[in-house]
TrEMBL record:
<feature type="transmembrane region" description="Helical">
    <location>
        <begin position="280"/>
        <end position="301"/>
    </location>
</feature>
<feature type="transmembrane region" description="Helical">
    <location>
        <begin position="321"/>
        <end position="340"/>
    </location>
</feature>
<dbReference type="GO" id="GO:0016020">
    <property type="term" value="C:membrane"/>
</dbReference>
<feature type="transmembrane region" description="Helical">
    <location>
        <begin position="105"/>
        <end position="126"/>
    </location>
</feature>
<keyword id="KW-0472">Membrane</keyword>
<dbReference type="GO" id="GO:0055085">
    <property type="term" value="P:transmembrane transport"/>
</dbReference>
<feature type="transmembrane region" description="Helical">
    <location>
        <begin position="138"/>
        <end position="156"/>
    </location>
</feature>
<feature type="transmembrane region" description="Helical">
    <location>
        <begin position="410"/>
        <end position="441"/>
    </location>
</feature>
<dbReference type="InterPro" id="IPR011547">
    <property type="entry name" value="SLC26A/SulP_dom"/>
</dbReference>
<dbReference type="InterPro" id="IPR001902">
    <property type="entry name" value="SLC26A/SulP_fam"/>
</dbReference>
<dbReference type="Pfam" id="PF00916">
    <property type="entry name" value="Sulfate_transp"/>
</dbReference>
<feature type="transmembrane region" description="Helical">
    <location>
        <begin position="176"/>
        <end position="205"/>
    </location>
</feature>
<feature type="transmembrane region" description="Helical">
    <location>
        <begin position="57"/>
        <end position="74"/>
    </location>
</feature>
<feature type="domain" description="SLC26A/SulP transporter">
    <location>
        <begin position="30"/>
        <end position="413"/>
    </location>
</feature>
<feature type="transmembrane region" description="Helical">
    <location>
        <begin position="361"/>
        <end position="390"/>
    </location>
</feature>
<feature type="transmembrane region" description="Helical">
    <location>
        <begin position="32"/>
        <end position="51"/>
    </location>
</feature>
<protein>
    <submittedName>
        <fullName>SulP family inorganic anion transporter</fullName>
    </submittedName>
</protein>
């Protein structure tokens, strides 16, 4: 029998467990700086995705505002950040051309939001739990690699499209690697110098000697990078005009003088598009792709969450549905939960959804008050921030850990990485999932899959007995069952009859073990090995 100990990696803080406003205020000292960091990362992405989608520049920022101010509170995730997604750029660009106008796309997006709402009420969100851990980690690693590769041209000041797309084959006829080669032939010395200084600051800020200083930990490195980069560009312009950064490599935010001026810039849906059958086909495509990306993103965020909180997938679908409806009604792009901004949020030390909310408010304020100042930020400095985010997502330790887990875990992981790198997010995940299912079916060809629960009525005890062979296909049922337990329950999780328990299930059990004490649950493990859950 293995008796659990109090979770070492979970901070004993009521401020991250529940929703009362007082609890959110307790973590504001960490959430506010994190919200600022996410804002700095999200702003250029919102603008770049708008450009890549062939939509008005303001539309991406509007979606970011709605995702932060509204969806953050509707979602059950504490750390996820919603906004325009690079993975939807091709779909949006094609839809605008097919429907004939951006206003027609807005009408289709409203319908897509209604479809997502229906999926949430039909409890279709559980599909996200059936994605193997190796595939989700592969998705995170691939996004990290893509971030690094895509940011190199901007880091060098040699690409005018800040975040053209996440695909390997780009709209301009180049691919990821040829774009990097072209960038090295057109290096901007000023941008590169600022990028290198920015990377140096970010690395120094995370060093152990610096982190021992309390004052240092309270200052977000990304904020310092932005301020220094602006100062450097001003200084370079005066000292050596040849090193001055080209205006194409600075942030470009529309300057709006007032709230009424902002309202005047909004675009509204063309409801006449609802008479065309093709509109509903576009709406269905947006709804399905956006839902899958959101479910995969919140699943990945739950794995990165230091507190291992679990997001209700059906609630997430409803939140994304409402978000898409509201964003489209005021001229915003389709939205999803976005792993890039969510990862930046976690790495910045966010504790609750207050950070995403603050990022949304800052996006709104930036349009109304800060556009002239923000337009001074060099893109190479923001590229440096994203390079660091990318590295944290695809650390070499992640690859070593997956390799040590064996072929059943490594192959779906590495196939997912390669497939996403050379295609796109959705296709890559589907390929990785197919490989994961192949290994599971191969290993359990003659085995039955079931999860047997045997209640014991004495002393509020529940005895859960695992079957002989437990695969990731049982993961959703196990997580759902464990989430139902209330405080004061004595849970006996028994694997004494199990010949094999899949790593995904062990990881889910370990996450439950780490949070059992916080939830007031007395957990007893029998014949179930503990696993190390890799963090980023």
């Amino acid at each position: 029998m293995i008796q659990t100990a109090p979770a070492k990696n979970v901070k004993q803080s009521s401020a991250v467990d529940s929703a009362p406003t007082a609890n959110y205020l307790k973590t504001i000292s960490k959430d506010a700086p994190a919200g600022l960091v996410v804002f700095l990362v999200a702003l250029p992405l919102c603008l770049g995705i708008s450009l890549a989608s062939g939509a008005p520049l303001l539309s991406g920022v509007i979606t970011g505002i709605v995702g932060g101010v509204l969806v953050s509170w509707l979602s059950g995730s504490q750390l996820s950040v919603s906004g325009p997604a690079a993975g939807l750029t091709v779909i949006v660009l094609t839809a605008i051309n097919t429907l004939g106008s951006f206003q027609a796309l807005l009408a289709a997006t409203v319908i897509a939001g209604l479809i997502q709402l229906a999926l949430g009420f039909l409890r279709a969100g559980i599909i996200g739990m059936y994605f193997p851990s190796s595939v989700i980690k592969g998705m995170l690693a691939a996004i990290g690699l893509i971030l690094i590769l895509k940011q190199i041209p901007h880091f060098l000041g040699a690409d005018t499209d800040y975040f053209e797309d996440m695909d390997f084959f780009q709209f301009n006829g180049q691919n990821t690697f040829s774009a990097i080669g072209t960038a090295f032939k057109a290096i901007s010395l000023g941008s590169t110098l600022i990028g290198l200084v920015s990377i140096g600051i970010l690395l120094a800020w995370e060093s152990k000697p610096m982190q021992r200083l309390t004052a240092i930990r309270k200052v977000p490195a990304a904020l310092l990078v932005v301020l220094i980069s602006i100062g450097m560009n001003v200084a370079l312009s005066s000292a050596s005009p040849a090193l001055r950064i080209n205006p194409d490599h600075l942030v470009k935010l529309p300057v709006v003088s007032s709230l009424m001026g902002l309202i005047g810039e909004l675009t509204f849906p063309d409801w006449s598009a609802l008479t065309k059958p093709i509109t509903y086909g576009v709406a269905f495509t947006i709804a399905i792709v956006a839902s899958l990306e959101s479910l995969l993103s919140v699943e990945a965020v739950d794995k990165l969450d230091p507190h291992k909180r679990h997001t209700a997938p059906n609630r997430e679908l409803k939140a994304q549905g409402v978000g898409n409806i509201v964003a489209a009604l005021v001229g915003g792009l389709p939205m999803t939960a976005v792993i890039v901004r969510s990862s930046a949020n976690i790495n910045a030390g966010a504790q609750t959804k207050m950070s995403a909310f603050i990022h949304g408010l800052l996006l709104l304020m930036s349009i109304l008050f800060l556009a002239p100042f923000l337009n001074l930020i060099p893109l190479s400095a923001l590229a440096a921030v994203l390079l660091m985010v990318g590295f944290k997502l695809t650390k070499p330790a992640l690859y070593r850990t997956q390799w040590k887990l064996g072929w059943e875990q490594f192959m779906p992981f590495i196939v997912t990485v390669v497939a996403i790198l050379f295609t796109d997010l959705l296709k890559g995940v589907c390929v990785g999932l197919a490989v994961g299912v192949f290994f599971i079916l191969k290993a359990n060809l003659e085995s039955a899959f079931f999860f047997h629960r045997e209640p014991v009525r004495e002393h509020n005890t529940i005895h859960l007995k695992l079957s002989e062979h437990v695969s990731f296909l049982n993961k959703a049922s196990i997580i759902t069952t464990l989430d139902r337990f209330k405080a004061g329950t004595h849970v006996i999780l028994d694997g004494s009859d199990s010949v094999s328990i899949d790593y995904d299930v062990l990881e889910a059990i370990e996450n439950f073990r780490q949070t059992a004490d916080e939830r007031g649950i007395n957990l007893e493990l029998r014949a179930i090995p503990q696993v190390a859950v890799l963090g980023h």
